[in-house]
Amino acid sequence: MIGFLLRRLGQALLLLLIVSVIGFAILHLAPGGPLSQFAAGGDMTQADLDRIAEQLGLNRPLPVQYAEWLWRMLSGDWGRSYRDQQPVLHIIASHIGATLELMLTSTLLAMLLGAWVGILGAIKRYSIFDSLATIGAMIALSIPTFWFGLVIIYVFSVGLGWLPAGNRYTVGDGSFLNQLHHLIGPCIVLALVSTAVWSRYMRSSMLDVINQDYVRTARAKGVPERSILLRHVLRNALLPMITITGLHVPTLLSGALVTETVFTWPGMGRLFLDSISYRDYPVVMGILMFSAMLVLLGSLIADLLYGVADPRIAGSH
Amino acid sequence: MRDSHDPRRFSNWNLNRRDLFGLGAGALAATYGLAAQAQTAAKPTAPPPAKPTGVVVVGLSQEPVSFNPLMPGVEVDEVVWTSVFNSLWVAEPDGTLRPDLALAVPSEANGGISDGGLAWSVKLRDNVKWHDGTAFTAEDVKYSLELINTAGFKARTRVGHAFVRDILVKGPHEISWRMEKAYAPYLAMLANTHIVPKHILGKAADPNTAPFNNAPVGTGPFRWGTRQPGDNITLVANESYHGDGPYLEKAVLKYIPDLTALYAQFRTGQVDLVIISGIPANFYQEAIKLPGRKVAVAPSGNLEIIMPNLGNKAFAEKAVRHALYAAMDKQAIIDAIYYGVPKPTESFAPRESWAFNPALPVQQRDLARANKLLDDAGWKRSGSGTRMKNGVPLEFAVSTTTGNQLREQCQQLIQQDWQQVGAKMTINNMPAAVIWGEFYVRSKFESLLVGTTFRTGVDPDPASRFASDAIPVKGGSGGNYMQWENAEADALMKEGQETFDQEKRKAIYFRLQEIVREELPILPIFQYAPIEGVKEGLIGYRPNINQRQNAWNMGSWYWAK
User: Fold this and answer.
1) What is the rounded CA–CA span in Å between residue A99 and residue A257?
2) Which residues of chain A lie closer than 8 angstroms to B477, CB-CB?
3) Residue A155 contacts by C-beta under 8 Å, 6 or more apart in sequence?
4) CA angle A246, A250, A254 (to 5 degrees)
């Protein structure tokens, strides 16, 4: 097990290195630069721009810039934003809360809803509920996130006036209830796809377990149906779901990017878009590395949990 | 003249054009009277509260992120700078400079500027305190001016500051310095140079990364409160402010990047005020009818222009520039795309400026004249319809920011105009971070559709944009990206910088505008007319062309009760 863990960590580090090289190269080879926002305004002279470019190290060869960046990263310094002047880690930390709030709430909602729909669909296979759930999942998977977000805003904010049109809270009212109210719209949008995916997983996982010999044996022994479902089926069917959650992190991150933009949510997604449009290299690289780490961590946890769920897999590590 | 029956341009326009002209006139009248004043004309202005009361929520489509006013920043950052800090003097809407930290604006008449503009002396207020309670002194001014020129400091600009020599603190509230050369625009530059505290920044190991930059301490009407990155900044009333006000307890600067969402929140009342990029022109008609809201066109020093690269063979010829200018239907662009809100201009100076020359020839759309100019210059029509001269086709690209739909429509109209005189224009647009980078500052473009200003701070001096020694690709330092060179203009701009008498300078810039209009190094289209909106009852909002944003006087805002 420890050998497996070390091997996986080694692979993860190599992957991070590759991600950083590709990310750095793409970002810096793309035309344009962080000083363009000042040049556009016509307020700064060429000498001012040149001086600042030199101070930021932007006029050095790309491999040198990369080596400096990597060295700083390894020593725990993720750099400073060109735009914000603050340390990158500080900026990420100040935005991660909003994204986590959105992701965790929508994940929880999606898991509960997805599990419920999946379980009920499996128990009542081919029923009207099951058919509706299948159609609903297909539709949910096909709807573009931004479009669904706009529909929610149009119907529930502009039309009915039930939900706020955006933001994390109303200025001057940071109460829990106010925040919860603001969370509903983006949460529904972000949870939609996950619910659809997880309900399908849950359903097939349940069906796999329901047909196992030990379930049939339990039935033959006269164990009540409710007890069979809760103790024998659900427990075993839920384990793969936990691992799927780990693998779902990247999807959630990309979904948050769109949802945060539509709902003007001050999280990582919007920070990423802002930083790219300003060519704020240190922040973009920071978010890229942070996301890569999160994805690798998610899949590592998923792998480990597979082992917990099925000792045969753990043995094969 | 504009062909108002052309269905290509005026579909759905004739129906409401009259309405819009009426509304536009009202709005433009409000430009000068301003929303708050228009509002106060209807009922008597309530006096300001005795003690700071109430909150204002200012909606911004860009996020202020740079809080050290001496470091690089864009106009939205100045909302924080002008509220948290003070400068020696402030530019008022009429262009006059009002003393702020200084007791008087130095001039040759009051002896503050002497020795032919080389010796400057300023007396300062003695009742000013920093937000942490420390007294403000001449040492702070000296420190600020020196910091700008310090080698490793990422100063926003050193224009004018680089000429400062021998700064001398003559007393706790008196300072003097010498200038390497006489430079009149420095008065305007200082109006936009905020003074930072020596006792805090001076102790920082590196002023570029000091904690001060994220929690600024100033002398202004508002103290730094809290910041939720990506969302809002809260400023709190400085109750020991040396000037009038502040009258508001708090000011919340709310960042809403989407212009439609920003307008929606202004409509629903979540935001009290929309400034800077403001209300999109397509909402203008609706916005001015909103109950409980005052919406007006604010003046702006920015011009929308076609910037030809004179390094390009075709554009190097004055006749071509004149022909292209004559073929453009400027009024159609303004009416059909910008809802008739902005006004056409012929000058590089904003019309509200004291240096604006109102007597420049007015551009008339005249295809016959445009064709004749090109024929006379030897540009012959080829089989494809595109003109040629010495084997060179009259073909070029106009670039602008991708995703700016109004500018993209504008390009299409101009493209069709120019096609009619045998000039083939292609569209080559790029994202903002690309187009305003090397492509712009190293003159790699063929021509641009750009919104920019030709001033030094609020001074009418356009030398950094028009002087021959300001062409970066020819080793100069400045923003003459179109590569225009003109000896008479150079001499005038030099003279304008060295003259402190406003009347003399006025004559200089009037002549300069005539030359620019005659030479056409830029093809001016219109002066910007950002639409700003204020909730009724907010008193004190005053648009100011001599500031980069209209929250410049937030310390004197208050709510009518």
Assistant:
1) 9
2) 45-47
3) none
4) 145
Q: Which string of DSSP letters, residue by residue, matches A206-220?
A: HHHHHTSHHHHHHHH
**Residues B273, B262: Cα–Cα separation, whole Å:** 10
Prior bond of A164 cis (ω within 30°): no
pLDDT at B471 over 60: yes
- Give B207→chain A minimum CA distance, Å: 11
B72 and A52: CB-CB below 8 Å?
yes
| pTM listed for this prediction | 0.83
Burial class from Cβ neighbours inside 10 Å (0-12, 13-18, 19+) for residue A93 reads: exposed
Amino acid occupying residue B432: A
N-terminal to C-terminal alpha carbon distance within chain B: 51
| CA-based nearest distance A249→chain B, Å | 23
Q: Do A45 and B159 touch (CB under 8 A)?
A: yes
Strands B250-255 and B273-274 come out as: unpaired
| Listed residue (A307, A196, A186, A295) closest to A242, CA to CA | A307
Q: Which of B66, B77, B228 to mutate to test the interface with A (most CBs of A within 10 A)?
A: B228
Contacts of B350 (CB under 8 A, 6+ apart): B299, B300, B301, B303, B356, B527, B545
Angle between the N-to-C axes of helices A249-262 and A88-123, in degrees from 0 to 180, rounded to the nearest 10: 110
Nearest Cβ partner for B229 among A41, A80, A91: A91
CA neighbor of B466 nearest in space, from B446, B442, B492? B492
Does this chain's domain B86-199 share its CATH topology with B303-527?
A: no
User: What is the DSSP code (8-state) at residue B450?
Assistant: E
**B261–A264: do the CB atoms touch at under 8 Å?**
yes
- For residue B478, give the nearest of A45, A81, A267 by CB distance: A45
Cβ of B432 within 8 Å of Cβ of A40? The answer is yes
Between CA B217 and CA B215 the distance in angstroms is 7
Which tokens is B127 given?
Answer: 């009742």
Nearest residue, CB atoms, B214 vs list A86, A98, A278 = A86
Give just the sign of the alpha carbon dihedral B445, B447, B453, B455. Answer: positive
How is domain B303-527 classified at the CATH fold level? Dipeptide-binding Protein; domain 3 (3.10.105)
Count Cβ atoms within 10 A of the Cβ of residue A61 and give its class: 0-12 exposed, 13-18 middle, 19 or more buried: exposed
Q: What is the ipTM of this complex?
A: 0.78
Where are chain B's structural domains? 48-84+220-298+530-560, 86-199, 303-527
Distance CA B535, CA B483 (A): 45
In angstroms, the CA A125 to CA A130 distance is 6
What DSSP designation does B398 have? E
Reported as a single tens digit per residue, the pLDDT across B256-284 is: 888 888 888 898 888 999 998 788 888 88
Q: Express each pLDDT in B416-437 by its tens digit.
A: 999 999 999 999 998 888 888 8
pLDDT per residue as tens digits for the range B505-557 = 999 999 999 999 999 999 999 998 889 999 999 999 999 988 889 999 999 99
Residue pair A247/A302 in contact by the 8 Å Cβ criterion: yes
B553 versus A226: which is more confidently predicted? B553
CATH class of the B86-199 domain in this structure? alpha beta
Band (B500; pLDDT cuts 50, 70, 90): very high
CB atoms within 10 A of CB B17: 17
Q: Are B445 and B429 in contact (CB under 8 A)?
A: no
Topology (CATH level 3) of domain B48-84+220-298+530-560? D-Maltodextrin-Binding Protein; domain 2 (3.40.190)
- Residue whose C-alpha is closest to residue B307's, from B395, B377, B400, B387: B400
- For B220, residues 6+ apart whose C-beta sits below 8 A from its C-beta are B82, B83, B84, B85, B86, B238, B241, B555
Q: Number of A:B CB contacts under 8 A?
A: 162
Token output for B553 = 């006087």
Q: What are the tokens at B475?
A: 């080793």
